[in-house]
Amino acid sequence: MFALKNHPTCSLKVADKNLGGIWLEKSMYITRAYVDHLSDTLTYSEVETVPVQQIYKQIRRAVSRYKDSVDDVSRKYILNKVTPETCTVPTFYLLIKILKNPLSTRGIAASHSWITTGASKWISSMLNPVVKNLPSVLTSSSDLIRSLETTPLPRNCILFSWDIVALYPNIPIEMGITFVEDALNEFSDYSQDLKSLIIVLLRIVLDNSYIKFNDKRFKQIFGTAMGTSLACDFANIFVFYFFRPIWVKFKDHFLFSFSYIDDIAGAIHNREHFQKFFDAIITQVNKKHPRIKITVVVSDTSIDALDITFFKGSRFHNSGILDIKPYRKKQSRFLYPIYSSFHAPGSKTSWLVAELMRLVRNSSHLSYFLAEKRFFAEKTRLRGIPPSVFDLHASKVSYADRAKYLTPVVRSNDNNNLPLFFQTTYTPLTRFLNIKKILSSCWGLLPPSIYGEDVCKLVTTYKRGKNLREILSPSAML
């Protein structure tokens, strides 16, 4: 593996949709980056320098101007999350879409340490509650399932879905910012100064998307960078307002509809109504912006959306409520964590319960769940998870609790009940230490005013240590 990673002419790259690794010639990888993305002069422009200090000054001026609209914690986060001294220009990389014919790529900008990261994360935290207030916009597939469970439909209804092709890099920035202003005015109770600060910082983030690739620097001059924190909320708001005129015009024809980022689906009364609806979509897209493209699927019986398939099964024929079962792509590789890998025991198995609960939520009948559970068990065995371990965790999940799993989680704002986290590096030594027991024996030495007296609230967490390659080659960490 070490030799492969350091091969002079080839490299190991990541496939899109978690389909594993790809052994690719470095020259081909660079060529695809330019052909598929960076050579598009309407989207990217090569630059000599990146004005980090100027961008940071813009952020400081905006925060200073509207300082009374945000608290000290938010101000410090926006300004200090990343500073000119600690920031790095986002690295542009590709996810290879091996399922596409011909082969294509998805461009990602790793914006975790860019100068606008603090502002982007803060804006996302402010837009997220607004997105939750948008009618028909989902925050998860559970929202859709809860709606479908209580919505009887006529037998001759038509199911549809459409996908917006390459949404993020094709969102017109000015149009998107206008839509965010509309959303803040319509679906938030923020003060005018706070809304103004959000818009000013949003413009700074979107107007300063810089990347580095192959020792060159580029500025994204159109669309939203895939990798900045606010991209998801920004896209949700854009899609809602972009297609809103159609929702309003055809609201009497819809039986239900929803959107989640670039995926939109629903049901309409009959094919005649759908044809009128589809013609309106095409007119709206062509009228508003030529770079927005969609692909449409229509069916009399079933539609795949998000991670579920909703279809006209036995429940539908009895009550008019669509049947639901988990959706998985045929090409999925199911690359779950390998059981023999050196990870904390909890991280190797705790996800089993979460996945089984998801399968319960996404199954409207016990038989659908049992079929998916058997399939899931088979795939986990291929990753080395012993059947006894799988069965132990599966025993914690019951289909009888489906209603509970579908109930929205109400998160408490009571910080007094938060546990105390003790973090250490996961090593062969800490792997076998009972850290909670050790700390408990010394708990009386700690100031109660700071840590409290309840040791039961202590949670041990682990961070990854250096791997063998990083130990042998420090430059690999750069």
Counted beta strands: 16
How many whole angstroms does the radius of gyration measure?
25 Å
Mean pLDDT: 87
Structural class: alpha+beta
Largest sheet: 4 strands, antiparallel
Number of domains: 4
Total of DSSP H or I helical runs spanning 4+ residues: 18
Kindly, what is the distance between the CA atoms of the first and last residues, rounded to a whole number of angstroms? 19 Å
Multimeric status of the protein: single chain
As a percent range, the share of helical residues equals 40-55%
What is the global morphology? globular
Q: How are strands sequenced across the largest beta sheet?
A: 9-10-6-11
Strand content: 15-25%
- Provide the low-confidence segments as ranges: 473-478
What does this protein look like?
With 478 residues, this protein is an alpha+beta fold. The protein folds into four domains: 2-124 and 189-228, no CATH class; 141-166 and 233-326, Alpha-Beta Plaits; 345-406; 415-477, no CATH class. The protein contains 18 helices and 16 strands. The chain has helices at residues 2-5, 26-38, 52-65, 72-80, 117-133, 141-148, 173-187, 192-207, 231-249, 271-288, 314-319, 345-361, 366-382, 387-394, 402-406, 435-441, 448-451, 468-472; strands spanning 10-14, 21-25, 44-47, 91-97, 104-110, 158-165, 209-213, 216-220, 254-260, 263-268, 293-299, 302-305, 308-311, 323-326, 420-425, 458-463. The strands form six sheets. Strands 9-10-6-11 form a four-stranded antiparallel sheet, covered by helices on one side. Strands 3-8-7 form a three-stranded antiparallel sheet. Strand 12 and strand 13 form a beta hairpin. Helix 3 (52-65) packs antiparallel against helix 8. The chain is globular. It starts with a helix and ends in a 6-residue tail after the last helix. 26% of the residues are buried.
